[in-house]
UniProtKB/TrEMBL annotation:
UniProt xrefs under InterPro entries: Peptidase_M32_Taq
Alphabetized SUPFAM superfamilies for the sequence: Metalloproteases ('zincins'), catalytic domain
Essential cofactor(s): Zn(2+)
Residues holding Zn(2+): 258, 262, 288
Record GO biological process: proteolysis
GO molecular function: metal ion binding; metallocarboxypeptidase activity
UniProt source species: Roseivivax halodurans JCM 10272
Protein purpose: Broad specificity carboxypetidase that releases amino acids sequentially from the C-terminus, including neutral, aromatic, polar and basic residues.
Name this protein carries in UniProt: Metal-dependent carboxypeptidase
Length: 494
């Protein structure tokens, strides 16, 4: 006899497969979709979301859940699946189908509007669309919050269990140490910057090899170019994108390593979880921990860059730097810049904290879209000490708000915190890590992450995932120690 749990999981697998199809539409839109198809794609995405929402809020799911939750003999995997399905169902039934479909349609079209406004450096052209997206997300948050904090309700889509108050405390502890360290670094002599031009085809060839070095399985994925690098999909179809700059090969290379971290997480999840709630990363914070540890603690380490230096010279010829140590210093050079995704490791979190504070104010109504550009520019001037020169380097640089991802930004810094915890545990577990990295061997590091984090997918809650991997409660302290030690050494601050 088929149990309620078995019926429910079969239904969820179909829903998961349809969600992957919807995700593929998004990948196509970002990479190869013709510009004139934007409005039609919006209707297609709205239709898919209508179908998905109807399945997620289907009354039968509630019935199957109740029966399955009451059954005896449930194992760890069954209980975890039911926990995820219950959370998703309870949220889905609070959001009207009309609203879910309208959000999908508006954000799909808004993405193209944002891209055009960004290219034209014209925030006013995007503002009406952003107002509509914000209105819909406020409505969704109000429906989900049951009278509680609207921003916290939206945050649960990206980091279940987290609250803005908790994150504010964590970020508040980081901020003074970051600003103090940045001020000290700014007063020290900076390493040389990379100069020259770098063939973009050669960049793509090298970055594809580096992705595979970090364990990306290209038989189950592909690498393409997009305006904003991203990873898409799960299981056996996980795609990544990057971008190139003729004068900055690090942009391409480290964007790729970052997205490889995301993709490797999805590819490593146990195959038996495919299309179930456990078959994807458990939260964006944990997801970001993988991309950031790949990019920074591994990819920007002295040991790995000593190997990468040779790969770069093989691809592009002499780099104008005397040795691998100078290359390491150049890779980790602290520099002025406007763009979050191009920020050095030290200043990155200040970019995130700016967005976190502004989007909370937008959702609460303390800040309106008409005042957003001025608020952004004022905060940037205060945090970084120089003025935003144009909207594409400021309020228009990120795609997130155009697609309704309010609550997503803080998970970037939370991911950095998690990465700091994981890096500390990784070095204890793999004492010869630097020797491996210096030979271009990432298997020890990625194998440890795969075993301790990635393969579990959504089996555990986000914080529990980090605690199980490290044996400790997550804290910002390991990340701050790492940054203070690394940049103190690089800039002679010891």
């Amino acid at each position: 006899m088929t149990t309620a749990y078995e019926v429910l999981i079969a239904f969820e697998r179909e829903t998961g497969a349809l969600a992957q199809v919807a995700g593929r539409l998004g990948w196509d839109q970002e990479t190869v979709m013709p510009r004139g198809a934007a409005a039609q794609r919006g209707d297609e995405m709205a239709a898919m979301e209508s179908v998905l929402h109807a399945r997620r809020a289907d009354p039968r799911v509630g019935e199957w859940l109740a029966a399955a939750e009451a059954a005896d003999g449930l194992g760890e995997v069954e209980r975890a699946n039911l926990r995820h399905i219950r959370r998703a169902y309870d949220r889905a039934v609070k959001v009207p189908s009309r609203l879910a479909s309208e959000i999908a349609r508006v954000t799909s079209v808004a993405q193209g509007t944002w891209a055009e406004a960004r290219a034209a450096d014209d925030f006013a052209a995007f503002a009406p669309t952003l107002r509509e997206v914000l209105r819909l997300k406020r409505e969704e948050g109000a429906a989900l919050s049951d009278g509680g904090d609207v921003y916290d309700a939206l945050l649960q889509d990206y980091e279940p269990g987290a609250t803005a108050a908790q994150l504010t405390d964590m970020f508040g502890a980081m901020r003074p140490r970051l600003t103090r360290l940045i001020d000290q670094v700014r007063g020290a002599e900076a390493p040389a910057a990379l100069s020259g031009t770098f063939d973009e085809a050669a960049q793509m060839a090298l970055t594809a090899r580096i992705a595979q070095t970090f364990g990306y399985d290209t038989t189950r994925g592909r690498l393409d170019k997009a305006v904003h690098p991203f990873s898409s999909g799960s299981g056996n179809d996980v795609r990544i994108t990057t971008r190139t700059s003729l004068t900055d090969p690090f942009n391409c290379l480290y964007s790729t390593i970052h997205e490889t971290g995301h993709a490797s997480y999805e590819q490593a999840i146990a195959q038996e979880y495919l299309f179930t709630p456990l078959g994807q990363g458990v939260s964006m914070g944990v997801h970001e921990s993988q991309s950031r540890i790949y990019e920074n603690q591994l990819g920007r380490s002295r040991a790995f860059t000593s190997w990468l230096h040779g790969q770069m010279e093989e691809a592009f010829g002499p780099l104008g730097l005397p040795d691998a140590e100078a290359f390491y210093r150049t890779v980790n050079r602290v520099h002025e810049g406007y763009i979050r995704t191009e920020a050095d490791e030290l200043q990155y979190n200040l970019h995130v904290l700016l967005r976190f504070d502004l989007e909370r104010a937008l959702i609460s109504g303390e800040l309106e879209v008409d005042d957003l550009e001025d608020a952004w520019n004022a905060r940037f001037q205060r945090d970084f000490g120089f003025a935003v020169d144009r909207p594409s380097n400021g309020v228009l640089q990120d795609v997130h708000w155009s697609v309704g991802l309010f609550g997503y930004f803080p998970t970037y810094s939370l991911g950095n915190v998690y990465a700091g915890c994981l890096h500390e545990a990784l070095r204890e577990a793999v004492p010869d890590l630097d020797t491996q990295l210096a030979s271009g061997d990432l298997s020890g590091a990625t194998g440890w992450l795969r075993e301790n984090v990635q393969r579990h997918g959504g089996l555990y809650e986000p914080r529990e995932t980090i605690i199980r991997a490290t044996g400790k409660e997550p804290s910002e302290e390991p990340l701050m120690r790492y940054l203070e030690t690394k940049f103190g050494n690089l800039y002679g601050l010891d």
